[in-house]
UniProtKB/TrEMBL annotation, chain A:
Name under which the protein is recorded: Cytochrome c oxidase subunit 1
Organism, scientific name: Rubripirellula reticaptiva
Upper taxonomic lineage: Bacteria, Pseudomonadati, Planctomycetota, Planctomycetia, Pirellulales
Gene3D superfamilies named in the record: Cytochrome c oxidase-like, subunit I domain
Topological relation to the membrane, as annotated: Multi-pass membrane protein
Protein family (similarity comment): Belongs to the heme-copper respiratory oxidase family.
GO biological process terms held by the UniProt record: aerobic respiration; electron transport coupled proton transport; respiratory electron transport chain
EC number: 1.9.3.1
Main subcellular location: membrane
Length: 582, 366
């Protein structure tokens, strides 16, 4: 039997194509049907548009930063206010990227769309809360943009005191924005926890959930438990600024390091809010595009939970140079190393999944491979920073900048792009140009490395971060980095163009373009309003034995052995052997 | 050409791309060794993983619809192995890093103590007996302990060549120590004279970047502020000079001990302007920086934040140095640190005299 034919004696199961009125995009019309929608898929799409705009905005700021740093004395901004502009630029870049893009990107945009569909449910548990969380996100974004257009913000995205309590920029507006975004994040997390706990259909046991759901579940736990701490901290910061209550500001007998503890108690777990969903996306991508069962399902699932829990214990590694006691410092260093083990396990598992698989180098797979490469570099360079002595040298230098960009951009952004390309046909019912997609992945990969690899060297050579101007000896490496950033920008633009043109010119997508076995591939592309025409049959999410390529129709279909439900002739009322007896 | 020359040529060419800055303290050797060891360990893991990743991606590429050759779901022995083996390396890194850290943390008995004050956006090093200077001067092979404080926000003292860094948190003292192992060379007198002349002709403050040595002719190591501290964070830099002998260091300190006899106050005021951090915020050419320019300031009526107009006379300047947040000129922030207790009466007098030379009103009164 040649690859890609449907075995004889089997029945093909495929939901086919949706008719004009039965998918979620077309079943109701008009702006109001979107604004007041309670459909998780539409909310997911609105989030997708929102976070993409936030990303584009913050990405352009990043390009300005890089262009400014093309020359040691600064290329873009000149004159007395140059440093202030630069400081506002990197603050806004960081704050928008973190609070408006990276944290909500995968959980809110892809998660909202996918969690109920993958689960085989009709919607999330609290559809109104879901819509509310989207509008909270919009409100938070407004506050950030408002801060920009009033007096700017120049504290860095971490709002460290006492600088943030004394600067005359819009700290209050921005922290209010972050506070509101926190609620958006909590509501999304809460919704997913309840949905996954209570709305799994019969047959969907915990260990039959796709790993993306495990990742979303662990992320939600962090969101619900850690975000309130940030909320309280930001309120305290506002109280400190307006009423001088003396918690963080030494002028009023406060302690600035207390703020750092509070802040990182949220923000370090938040790093895992950013990366855990990415792990989930990559696990599904690698498995589906290798057409092979994921290797070590339970290890991956448990390691997500382990990362979520250990992530709460390591916040102190942001303060190794702040002057904590030696004992505290050493304990935090030891705990930091423990987080690297479950992360490493996942990388090994992904590569083992590819071994003896049937790999299709599709666009999502290219992004998944890029992810493994970049995230491994990001993870390994974390060891230099977790080691106490070397961190003394590297802390607050470009080494740190490179490290967290490898994890957050090379990790989360690449996984987000891989996920968007993977589920795009499902979300919009259109296929994009495979050539264009792979081209964008290649340009992004090269551009990204050119941008951030030189920064490791910059850092170990002693270039401090957040500098608007720098010593001429660092110019070579900064220039390499800037050229890389421009290339990265081109790659992202190509990706955007490929996706948008597919909406207009793309071929109609079949229900299962990649050969996935999870439930979302069992409904039409795009899915109907209630996700499934018939209640889906829950099976093993990583069992590809029944997924066959239907070459004639260019689609993957599920097959099952042909079973005779009833014999074609109705037998005699009296059985044959009974007749013989007479 | 000899082979060694060829290598040194490569070395010169590769220098801007080197991994580390110059190694100049007892910490740098341990630190670089540890850094390299971690890096090599990472490479040992990274290369096979990536080879496998790309090799599998090519080798197991199949046409659409082909089935995977194997569908193994797990292998407990393998999974435990790859969880446990890396853990040993991690423990190694942690232990070595923590030990080296404790060495960096505990200053040896009898280390020379130097007080450091960080402010937006500069440094003041206290050499005792009323000598303050922005440059950090140390003695070769002698451990030195810095006792550091900040007058405003969090700063961080970072000397890349020493691989040493510590935050300076307002409201508490933070300490760090190191032992420099490389002395700063002195440049030739002609070179120094040429640079001094050039600086004077241009009427600018000394440019460390252009000359790559201090106004006293010493080569130096960079000292940065590593914790973001506002507008001129990236300009909060100074230099470290390591003297070979105590005599040399003392001679340097003596040079800055007070206004030497025979030096007129205005000239000494110019020195203070450069040494005590005024130059960071107050320009001489009329351009607006964090604070008002000193050009033509003396004798000029200035509008305050409160709306009243005050003439910048001797008393106003004196008050502004000691209590800078009391009367702030409109359009500026009250960010200047107080110099109370840091400048002697003669110092303030010298600065006022210097300001007079920068203003037509001031020059006329002379």
């Amino acid at each position: 039997m040649s690859a890609g034919s449907i075995p004889k004696g089997s029945v093909v199961r495929d939901p086919g194509y949706p008719t004009a009125s039965e998918n979620y995009l077309t079943n109701s019309k008009g702006v109001l049907s979107w604004i007041f929608t309670l459909d998780h898929k539409r909310i997911g799409v609105m989030y997708l548009v929102g976070v993409t705009c936030a990303f584009a905005f913050a990405g352009l700021l990043a390009l300005l930063i890089r262009l400014h740093l093309f020359q040691p004395d600064g290329m873009i901004f000149k004159g007395a206010e140059a440093n202030n502009y630069y400081n506002q630029l990197f603050t806004l870049h960081g704050a928008v990227m973190v609070f408006l893009f990276i944290i909500p990107s995968i959980p809110a945009a892809l998660g909202n769309f996918l969690v109920p569909v993958m689960l085989g449910a009709k919607d999330v548990a609290f559809p109104r809360l879901n819509l509310c969380s989207f509008y909270l996100w919009c409100a938070g974004a407004m506050f950030f943009i408002g801060a920009l257009f009033s007096t700017g913000l120049d504290t860095g995205w971490t709002f460290y005191t006492p600088y943030s309590t004394t600067t005359d920029t819009s700290v209050i507006a921005a922290t209010m924005g972050a506070f509101i975004l926190g609620f958006s994040s909590i509501f999304t997390g809460l919704n997913f926890i309840v949905t996954i706990n209570t709305m799994r259909p019969p047959g969907m046991t915990w260990f039959r959930m796709p790993l993306f759901l495990w990742a979303t579940y662990s992320t939600s736990i962090i969101q619900v438990l850690a975000t309130p701490v940030l909320g309280i901290t930001l309120l305290l910061l506002i109280a400190e600024r307006t009423m001088h209550i003396g918690i963080f500001d030494p002028e009023f007998n406060g302690d600035p390091v207390t703020y750092q503890h509070f802040f990182w108690f949220y923000s370090h777990p938040a790093v895992y809010i950013m990366i855990l969903p990415a792990f989930g996306v990559i696990s599904d991508l690698i498995s589906v595009h290798s057409h092979k069962r994921i290797f070590g399902y339970r290890f991956i699932a448990y390691s997500s939970i382990a990362i979520a829990l250990l992530g709460f214990l390591v916040w102190g590694h942001h303060m190794f140079t702040a002057g904590m006691s030696p004992m505290t410092t050493i304990i935090f260093s030891a705990l930091t190393f423990t987080v690297s083990v479950p992360s490493a396990i996942k990388v090994f598992n992904w590569i083992a999944t590819m071994y003896k698989g049937s790999i299709s180098l599709t666009t999502p797979m290219c992004f998944a491979i890029a992810f493994i490469f970049l995230f491994t570099i990001g993870g390994l360079t974390g060891l230099h920073l977790g080691t106490l002595a070397t961190d003394m040298h590297l802390h607050d230098t470009y080494f740190v900048v490179a490290h967290f960009h490898y994890v957050m951009v090379g990790g989360t952004l690449i996984a987000f792009l891989g996920g968007v390309f993977h589920w795009w046909p499902k979300m919009f019912g259109k296929l994009y140009s495979e050539f264009g997609g792979r081209l964008s992945a290649a340009i992004i990969f090269v551009g990204f490395n050119l941008t951030f690899l030189p920064q490791f060297v910059l850092g170990s050579r002693g270039m401090p971060r957040r500098y608007a101007t720098y010593d001429p000896e660092f110019a070579y490496l900064h220039q390499m980095s800037t050229i890389g950033a421009l290339l990265l920008g081109v790659g992202l633009l190509v990706a955007l163009v490929v996706l948008l043109t597919s909406l207009v010119k793309g071929k109609k997508a079949p229900a299962n373009p990649w050969g996935g076995a999870t439930l979302e591939w069992h409904c039409t592309s795009p899915p109907p309003f209630y996700n499934f025409e018939h209640a889906p049959v829950v099976g093993d999410p990583y069992d590809f034995s029944n997924v066959e390529w239907d070459g004639a129709n260019e689609r993957y279909v599920s097959t099952e052995p042909e079973r005779k439900i009833a014999p074609s002739e109705i037998p005699d009322a009296v059985p044959a052997h009974a007749k013989d007896g007479h | 050409m000899k082979l060694t020359n060829a290598f040194s040529l490569v070395g010169d060419y590769a220098e801007p791309y080197a991994w580390f800055p110059e190694s100049a303290s007892t910490f740098s050797e341990t630190n670089d060794w540890l850094y390299n060891w971690i890096t090599y360990t990472c490479v040992v893991f990274f290369v096979p993983i990536m080879c496998a990743l790309f090799y599998f991606a090519v080798k197991y590429r199949k046409p659409k619809g082909a089935k995977a050759e194997s569908n193994v779901s797990h292998n407990t022995v393998l999974e435990l192995t790859w969880s446990i083996v890396p853990s040993f390396f991690l423990v190694g890194m942690f232990v070595m890093g923590a030990r080296a850290y404790l060495d960096m943390r505990d200053a040896p008995e009898g280390a020379n103590e130097v007080n450091v004050q960080a402010f937006k956006w500069g440094w003041t090093i206290d050499y005792g007996s009323g000598v303050f200077h922005p440059e950090l001067h140390l003695l070769l092979d002698e451990p030195v302990k810095l006792s550091m404080r900040s007058t405003d926000v969090i700063h961080s003292l970072y000397i890349p060549a020493f691989r040493a860094k510590k935050d300076i948190v307002p409201g508490r003292y933070n300490f760090m120590w190191f032992k420099p192992t490389v002395a700063s060379e002195k440049v030739s007198d002609e070179e120094l004279a040429a640079a001094t002349k050039q600086t004077k002709e241009r009427g600018e403050s000394w440019s460390y970047d252009d000359h790559q040595f201090t106004p006293d002719g010493y080569r130096f190591f960079d000292l940065y502020c590593a914790e973001y501290c506002g507008t001129n964070h990236s300009e909060m830099q100074t230099v470290v000079v390591v003297h070979e002998t105590l005599e040399d260091l003392n001679a340097w300190i003596k040079k800055y001990s007070a206004r030497p006899t025979g030096v007129d106050p205005a000239t000494y005021g110019a020195t203070l302007y450069n040494n005590r951090g005024c130059a960071g915020c107050h320009s001489l050419d009329g351009s607006k920086r964090v604070g008002p320019s000193f050009q033509g300031l003396y004798g000029r009526p200035e509008e305050m934040v409160t709306g009243e107009s005050i003439k910048a006379d001797e008393n106003y300047i004196r008050e502004s140095i000691l209590y800078p947040k009391e009367k702030v000129v409109a359009g500026y922030q009250p960010v200047m640190p107080s110099y109370k207790g840091q400048l002697s009466d003669d110092d303030i007098y010298s600065i006022v005299e210097y300001l007079k030379t920068l203003s037509t009103t001031g020059a006329a009164t002379k």
